[in-house]
Write a structure and sequence with these properties.
The chain has 309 residues and is of the alpha/beta class. 40% of the residues lie in helices and 22% in strands. The protein is built from 12 helices and 12 strands. A 5-stranded mixed β-sheet has the order 4-3-5-12-6. Strands 10-7-11 form a 3-stranded antiparallel β-sheet, covered by helices on one side. Strand 8, helix 9 and strand 9 form a beta-alpha-beta unit. The longest helix has 23 residues. The mean pLDDT is 85. This is LysR family transcriptional regulator.
């Protein structure tokens, strides 16, 4: 007969890492899926191996495979986690809670995506409310003080006590006025690109790190003439000038037509932007936060304007 440990002797916080390890069969991929460091996930795996007295993941050839015990656990664990999700979801009701969620995000998200996503929750019978603020340097200070619930951003520099969920990746493109001298060219050379005056968008985490790294590593300089704290002022400035900017493709896809701009492929290859949601670890088990992540964030991810056409 299998000996069962009392629940108070089991670290229930290991269930989520266990589920990720069984799903991805990789410490690295499991860590990335939960937004935690690889050494932390390795520590979780070591604890799970001791607790369950099984290796769980073993190398077979060039791949990692689940042990028979891990396969047995996987089917049961899915039912357990589904049941826990139902319990926590049932404990929060946005029609009864007067809580205000404070969301920091780029102006593109607040103008083009959130109105559609939040509309069903703004009805008279709903008690929940939302406060959106621009993700800028001031908002970052509020976040560090624990005064912001969620951040939606392409920034990557956050303290270890913030949990990250990557929700999408996107290519970078350049945008310019339809009247720009290069607007009729399908392909633009690097020399032409570097010769243009630039508008740079700076958010709460600074400028676009992938783009900055590309140029600094090659000791190339751009002629940055204007810096803004939002994409809407960036696009407004480009519309009436010969300046250009580099932005994520999905922004350009939906904003270019509104501002009379054209979109062109970059003359160089650079790492994709990663769109993420961050929240402080103190909120991770909060039922209201869990509801927000399961409903609002999932609807943002599937919104047609969140992805490139």
């Amino acid at each position: 007969m299998k000996q069962v440990k009392p629940l108070n002797q089991i670290n229930m916080n290991l269930l989520i890492p266990l589920n990720a390890l069984l799903e991805y069969k990789s410490v690295t991929a499991a860590a990335e899926s939960l937004g935690i460091a690889q050494p932390t996930m390795s520590k979780h795996l070591a604890q799970l191996r001791r607790l369950l007295n099984d290796q769980l993941l073993v190398r077979v050839g060039s791949h990692m495979q689940l042990t028979p015990t891990a396969l047995e656990i996987q089917s049961s664990l899915a039912l357990v986690l589904d049941g826990l999700n139902d319990i926590f979801a049932a404990s929060y009701d946005p029609d009864k809670d007067k809580r205000e969620f404070i969301i920091a995000c780029p102006d593109y998200v607040s103008a083009y995506i959130l109105p559609d996503v939040l509309r069903p929750y703004l009805a008279d019978e709903s008690q929940v409310s939302f406060h959106t603020i621009n993700w800028d340097v001031q908002a970052r200070s509020l976040l560090l003080e624990g005064l912001i619930d969620f951040v939606i951003t392409i920034d990557e520099d956050f303290a270890p006590n913030f949990i990250r969920k990557v929700i999408d990746k996107d290519h970078w493109v350049m945008v310019m006025s339809a009247d720009h001298p290069l607007a009729n060219q399908v392909e633009i050379s690097m020399d032409q690109f570097l010769a243009q005056p630039f508008v740079q968008t700076v958010t709460g985490g600074g400028s676009s790190k992938q783009i900055d790294r590309y140029f600094s590593q090659r000791r190339l300089k751009r002629n940055i003439k204007l810096t803004t704290q939002g994409y809407i002022p960036t696009f407004s400035a480009i519309r009436s000038s010969e300046m250009i900017s580099v932005v994520p493709q999905h922004l350009a896809t939906y904003m270019a037509q509104d501002f009379g701009l054209v979109v062109r492929v970059l003359p160089f290859r650079v790492a994709q932007s990663q769109h993420s949601v961050y929240w402080h670890e103190k909120f991770n088990n909060d039922s209201a936060h869990r509801w927000f992540r399961e409903h609002i964030i999932s609807e943002i991810v599937t919104h047609p304007r969140h992805r490139s056409a």
